Fold this sequence. Notes:
The complex is a heterodimer of chains A (about 525) and B (about 600).
Chain A: H1 15-37, H2 51-94, H3 112-128, E1 131-132, E2 135-136, H4 151-155, H5 164-176, E3 184-186, E4 193-198, E5 207-213, E6 218-224, E7 229-234, E8 243-249, E9 255-263, E10 275-277, H6 282-318, E11 328-329, H7 339-347, E12 352-353, H8 357-360, E13 379-383, E14 386-389, H9 397-411, H10 421-437, H11 439-481, H12 485-511
Parallel strand pairs in A: 9-10
Antiparallel strand pairs in A: 1-2, 3-4, 4-7, 5-8, 6-7, 8-9, 11-12, 13-14
Chain B: H1 3-29, E1 39-48, E2 51-62, H2 66-96, H3 105-121, H4 126-187, H5 193-209, E3 212-218, E4 221-226, E5 231-234, E6 239-241, E7 267-269, E8 275-277, H6 287-319, E9 320-324, E10 326-328, E11 331-335, E12 344-351, E13 354-362, E14 381-386, H7 393-403, E15 408-413, E16 416-421, E17 426-436, E18 450-452, H8 472-475, E19 476-478, H9 480-484, H10 502-512, E20 515-516, E21 531-532, H11 534-574, H12 578-610
Parallel strand pairs in B: 13-14
Antiparallel strand pairs in B: 1-2, 3-4, 4-5, 6-7, 7-8, 9-17, 10-11, 11-16, 12-13, 12-17, 15-16, 18-19, 20-21
Helix pairs in contact in B: 1-12, 2-4, 2-5, 2-6, 2-11, 3-4, 3-10, 3-11, 4-5, 4-6, 6-11
Amino acid sequence: MTSIGPYAASGVGRPSLVDALAKSRSQLSDLTQQLSTGMVSTTYAGLGDGRATSLAMRAKLATLSSYDATAATVSTRVSLMATALQRLDDIGAEYKLADPNDFTLTTGSVTVTQSQAAIDLQDAISQLNTDVGGRFVFSGRATDTKPVLSADAILSDDGSKAGLRTVIAERKLADLGADGRGRIDVSAVSGSSFTVAQEASGPFGFKISSLSSSMTNGAASGPTGSPAAITLGLTGQPETGDQTRVGLTLPDGSTEEIVLTVKAADDASALAEGEFRIGATPEETAANMRASFDAALRTRADTALVAASAVQAGEDFFNAPPGGGPARVAGFDGTYASDAERIAALQNATSLDSTDSADKTVSWYVGETGTDDPRKTAAAKIDDGVTIAYGARANEAGARQVVQNLAVFSAVTFSADDPNAKARYSALANRTISALGSSDATAAVKTMTTDLATANTAIKAASSRHAAAKTIAQDAISNVESVDKDEVTLRILALQTQLQASYQATATLKDLSLVNFL
Amino acid sequence: MGLSSALGAALSGLKASQSGLDLVAANVANAGVAGYTKKTLVTEQAVAGGVTVGVKADDVRRELDVYLQRQLRTETAGASYATTRANYLDRLQSVFGTPGGELSLDSVAQDFAGALDALAASPDDPSARSNVLSQAQIFAQTLNGASNSVQELRGQADQAMSAGVDKANEALKSIESLTTQIVRASAQGQSTAALEDQRDQAIDTLSSLMDVKVEDLGGGQIRVKTQSGLSLYDGQASTLQFQPSSSIVPGARYSSDASASSLGTITLVRPSGYSVDLLASGQLRSGELRALADLRDKTFPQAQTQLDELASGLAQALGSNVTAGSAIAGGVDLTTQGALSGDRLSVAYSVGGTTRSVTIVNVGDASKLPLADSLTADPNDTVIGIDFSSPTAVADLNAALAARGVGISASASADGFAFTSNSAALEISGGSSRITATALSGEGLALPVFVDGAGGGPYSNSLDGNAQRTGFAGRIAVNPDLLGDPAALTAYASGSASGDDARPVFLRDALKAQTSFSADTGLGGPGSPFTGSIVSFASGVINMQASASAAATRIADGQSLVVSALTDRFSESSGVDTDEEMGKLIQLQTAYSANARVITAVKEMLDMLMNV
Lengths: 518, 612
């Protein structure tokens, strides 16, 4: 009512009557609109006091939907990661039952178990290279990078970069030394004794760890000094069956024991490892003893030490510190006139070197590295104040151990002509089996799986919370925004009746003019 | 007394009936005409020599209750104000959003937040990145659109003011010419009822535009004044002048100081040449023109400020790095590296157990100094403006600190300013610098997602010149460099991993962080500013506009009810009642035939005389 309209003192022209009818009509059209849209109003102003609820609940719904979308994305990733880790765990478990003494060579100079390991290695690598919608989930933050090289690329050299096979071979040279005694010097017998001394070989070769003797007239002292040395010998003739035990520590931390056993002079049976006969004089017996020790040492070097060397080389190769290169035998990057010179240098190496090794060594893991918690490399906020961390790196202990052990196991080759081949294989297989089946490796994979399972549980819990909250929010919105169709229909009917009556009255009023009766 | 006198009386009766019939006809015919008031014929007996010789039609009277009319006019001005306001506010609130509307401000803000959530979950996903960018564009375009709509409404209000002024001038002119005629007719003893009806209608028109009151000076002369007492018509009509703007931009402001105003004002010019600014002097208190002026100069600019603050908060939350200062002995060292105009340092300190802070803003425009403390939302904050790059910056800063009574002294440090306490009683607890990032990478986690204008200038909420925030909602755009390099949404430094979620998480959290919004948006008060996330601010703005619109509609409905009731009562006394007119018609008819009968009788009597 913005202007002063025509005045009509009575009858249908009365402004308030016109107004009232117009109002009823517009109310009717409002109600019709409500009925057809199902909404109280198409504007926030029309919602009345409920608009605050509507706005807040809409914001709540949007947030919940966003959380749910994130949870759905992450849930897929976590499930696939869990599947991959489960497979890694299964692969490791298969080797618990492998027989380390089943030395059946196939055409590739490897055993049947080794060729199975080569296939399992590829399987493990492909699990770690799992991508979910183009995202490599075991790559830390570098999710666009396939984290692990192929088995072949890990084992072989790549131009100037050394592969695992080369690294194992180098370490073997350093551990065995030039004379194949595992960097141990065995002196000649002087009088009736001889010394066994470690070379100053740094981390390489055997380390003498213990000496115990129950030998009659035995002279056993040490280990003393640094590098450690022991003296073995006799002050008189020993008695048959007497033993002296020399404990050796191998590069991978395992121990070997050479047991020297006295055998009677007239015992014609073949000498087993460590056995020696009593000679005519104590000096002669001592010489027998030395020869027996020396032979045993060489055998152990060619079997257990080589296996341990390969395992340790694998440890160094695979477990490079974040951002650095793997530890290699010092002299790996020297310039040599001939291969013989290189071999000699490596055989006499006394330390590990990781300077520049990153550039000269194949890096099996090319994803993101870091010292922080790998889980933290991917995080998702799935609820207010709930952030789940589900990142992973393929070079985490559990996953690495599986790849490392399979790679080392499948990298070493054997020759049927080599008399020590079976024992060496057995030493390697034992180490691989125990490492893959050890509770350590399993636990490390299990830790990753557990972390992911926790994330999944958090997602599920959040999802069910969200479902409940969504229902509440939707109810609140519909309470505010939606109309009760029954109620609106009833109101329309009531209004219709009212309008009809009004119109009827107006029509009567119109007829009730004196004009009509004159 | 003879037959001829009877004949004369009958003839005068016929004439009076005739006039009465004329009026009945006129009343019935004009029953539907706006402003027409019921006319009645005043008759009186014609007396000659003490003897009644007939009847004469004395005057045509308007049936009018002047007190009711006055009240009706006042209420009409109020209703007109309320209705105009309600109409515009209804349109304004739909600019901000509708329930479930795809392009409501809160929806686009939520969609953008959702896109950032998705990016934080999949930083390496190109589709997540492009989704963030397209949602950012929708957000920017929605703000642009809303800003344009607000300015368009402002322009319409401006145009409507111009039209209203024309209408008022027309009404004033009519009043002038009608009054002249009325005075003349009245002097000549003619009926002025019809002219007065027309004049009243002109006044009614005027009263819906502005609040007026009418003084009757007698003899048909009137004086029209505003309710505040400023005369609009006093013998001669004054003219209202208004200069409409061809286009209105957010920066255009009305100021009561004419030299500072970039929008037109309504000026009253008297025929004497005296002029007065009706808006500045507050003489216009109600009516459509006041409503339009309020909308144009207060309501819409505030709506624009809300949009600008939203855009500003958005750009700054995502695009500026807050770096904590490094502690030094007895104080804090704050960096100013790469500071743009508008970037600020903040030092928190406690003195006498009260925690206070001082904010130092980089201001290049010396004319803006000194700054008011109300610039920041915190009431315990002292605000100082200096030019960081000035060679005398340290001296200026120390002078300002001393002038404001803050016991802290500043000195230049390697990459900014070092602040130390002057006394043991004042302990500096920390500080931070907020610096706007300009590059896509290498400047920390902040990313200039939104820039000022299509040219891509950084937005740093500069106070220089025509403050950068003004109209920013209309200019905000997604950084064109970012559109060309979506990978920068995650790559915050060279060599950062593709799956590194540090930046998406920063952006996501920045959007949801609780920030204080300026009190000039009308949300919250100066002491307790609106604090919340960008999304909740958008919701808050919608809620405020919707409730303002609902309230305005309620008021308008109430006011129109009052006017309707008054009109009813006015109609009762001044409106044409056809039944009544018909009744009169019968009376007149009867009177006419009675008079005619008298004439016939006289004739017969005369005939009888002739035949004697």
